[in-house]
């Protein structure tokens, strides 16, 4: 990591760590910028492999800057547009210099969009670089569970509010799944910007 993450709160979870902070006000998107980000979502859902068959993700998804390999598929990266470079640059300056790829997920609460329990793929990732998730728009729950699942283990929930930033160390990602469960209460739009560090090819 580049910095001591001053301004972030550290949470100890079963011997592992999650840092939670906020975007600076200067980077918080107004409605027009949020709409611009929202309109970047692809027209079709990404397909992944689950239990040997192809299924569509219950949300829109697109990689930028670096391809993302996971679940038997590759999300081919588009060039990073100037609007997303602002978030990448802030993450590099304040969290880790090795961050170089983004994956956006667009959640429409009215359509029941969510992401199930998973650990991020570490294919081509730099082990010492954490995973950064920036949450924009409607509040949702960011839920962690121990991996592998243990009997009577309670999930650990964090509110993913507009402007919340989660910093997950590499080893925490290996020890815990994370998810954004479906919600009957939060029915508006949410965008997550996940920033990762990949080995350059």
Q: Could you give the topology of this structure?
A:
Elements: E1 9-13, E2 16-22, H1 31-38, E3 47-50, E4 53-56, E5 60-64, E6 68-70, E7 73-75, H2 82-94, E8 101-108, E9 115-118, E10 131-137, E11 140-146, E12 156-160, E13 164-168, H3 170-175, E14 176-180, E15 189-196
Antiparallel strand pairs: 1-2, 2-13, 3-4, 5-8, 6-7, 8-15, 9-14, 10-13, 10-15, 11-12, 11-14
Describe it for me?
The chain is mainly beta and 201 residues long. The protein has one domain: Alpha-ketoglutarate-dependent dioxygenase AlkB-like (Jelly Rolls), CATH 2.60.120. The protein contains 3 helices and 15 strands. The chain has a 7-stranded antiparallel β-sheet with strand order 1-2-13-10-15-8-5. It has a 4-stranded antiparallel β-sheet with strand order 9-14-11-12. The longest helix is centred in the middle third of the chain and has 13 residues. The protein starts with 8 loop residues before the first strand and ends in a 5-residue tail after the last strand. The mean pLDDT is 92.
- Please describe the biggest sheet, giving its number of strands, its sense, and whether it closes into a barrel: 7 strands, antiparallel
Outline type: globular
Strand-pairing-aware structural class? mainly beta
Helix content: 10-25%
Output the helix-strand order. EEHEEEEEHEEEEEEHEE
What assembly state would you assign to the polypeptide chains in this entry?
Answer: single chain
**CATH homology group:** Alpha-ketoglutarate-dependent dioxygenase AlkB-like
Identify low-pLDDT runs.
Answer: none
Strand order of the largest sheet: 1-2-13-10-15-8-5
Query: Would you count the extended β strands for me?
Result: 15
Number of helices: 3
Strand content: 35-45%
């Amino acid at each position: 990591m580049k910095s001591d993450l001053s301004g972030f709160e550290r949470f100890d979870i079963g011997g592992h760590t999650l840092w939670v902070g906020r975007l600076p006000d200067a980077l918080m998107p107004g409605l027009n910028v949020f709409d611009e980000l929202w309109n970047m979502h692809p027209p079709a859902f990404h397909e992944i492999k689950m239990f040997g068959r192809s299924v569509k993700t219950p949300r829109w998804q697109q990689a930028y800057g670096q391809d993302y390999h996971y679940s038997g598929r590759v999300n081919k990266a588009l060039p990073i547009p100037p609007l997303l470079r602002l978030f990448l640059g802030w993450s590099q300056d304040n969290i880790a210099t090795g961050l170089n790829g983004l994956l956006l997920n667009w959640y429409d609460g009215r359509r029941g969009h969510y992401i199930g329990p998973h650990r991020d793929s570490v294919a081509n990732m730099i082990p010492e670089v954490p995973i950064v998730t920036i949450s924009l728009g409607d509040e949702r729950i960011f839920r962690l569970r121990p991996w592998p699942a243990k009997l009577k283990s309670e999930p650990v929930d964090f509110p993913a509010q507009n402007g919340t930033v989660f910093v997950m160390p590499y080893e925490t990602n290996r020890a815990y799944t994370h998810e954004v469960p479906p919600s009957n209460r939060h029915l508006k739009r949410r965008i997550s910007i996940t920033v990762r560090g990949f080995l350059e090819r």
